[in-house]
Amino acid sequence: MQKTAGIHHITAFVNDAQRTTDFYTGVLGLRLVKKTINFDRPEVYHLYFGNESGEPGTVITFFPWEKQLKGRIGTGQVGVTSYMIPIGAMDFWKNRLETFGVKFSLSERFGENYLQFQDPDGLELELVERNHGSINCWSVNGIQPEIAVKGFGGATLISAKPNKTAEVLEHVLGLRFLGQENGFLRFQSEGQFGNIIDIKLTPSVRGLMGAGTVHHIAWRAKDEVDHQRWRALLQKEGFYPTEILDRNYFKAIYFHEEGGILFEIATDPPGFTVDEPLHELGHKLMLPSWFESKREELEALASS
């Protein structure tokens, strides 16, 4: 059976590029691993934040556009994005959020404690202590590797048809069902990052795309051969995946599951060092070869 290792990346809408960069690098201590453009709307930046190398399962990406309206988190979306921190790091993060004036709350789910808060655009985030997943060696702004955000812990999905979404996770993507508790279903993949997925069962309002909401969640494919197998499987299962699209740092296919959530399957390779060395990641605007001739125009548009 085909099995994804877990989340590859999560992509969301925000209003302000600099405010988003300040929060994810300055508060959460992630690395800006790539500054590029939205290949489908090249006048808009596409920012990627992750661990030191932008490893699959650690990267959240954003389309910042000041003119977009505020969104509404609800059905057909990722409701909450979870990040893993090392065991014993929770008190540090409570203090850090307080220092930066970020309001938070505490909750428990499936025997784990969560520190929940929002980013400046209202995107729902949470931190959870877990042993697995390698340490993030990116040290910045008083955050040392032993307490740094490691990568995704997982995500909570808000589906219009929770049981249909559950079927996709278990019987198409190959995640293992762990149980049900207090209005949530829980599934687990085999990867070290982004491997715990919860589905909310209680009713929710219909989601509206806009600033502060997730556009899509991407799942991992090992390589291009595996990626082609995923596309064939989706077609066999009655879904309508897109053609394979070249996103420069990975190949991508997209499809909607019956609960209304946009899923992507993305290849692990080639990764973010395909066009700039590891030590220079995120320093300048990177363009795919087919847009390079329009660099001057795109730099002016993206910065305006």
Automatic annotation (TrEMBL):
It holds the Pfam family Glyoxalase. PROSITE patterns: VOC. Keywords: Dioxygenase, Oxidoreductase. The keyword Cytoplasm does not apply. SUPFAM superfamilies: Glyoxalase/Bleomycin resistance protein/Dihydroxybiphenyl dioxygenase (SSF54593). GO terms for molecular function: dioxygenase activity. Residues 6-130, 151-268 form the VOC domain. InterPro entries: Extradiol_RC_dioxygenase, Glyas_Bleomycin-R_OHBP_Dase, Glyas_Fos-R_dOase_dom, VOC_core. The keyword Phosphoprotein does not apply. It comes from the Bacteria. This is Ring-cleaving dioxygenase.
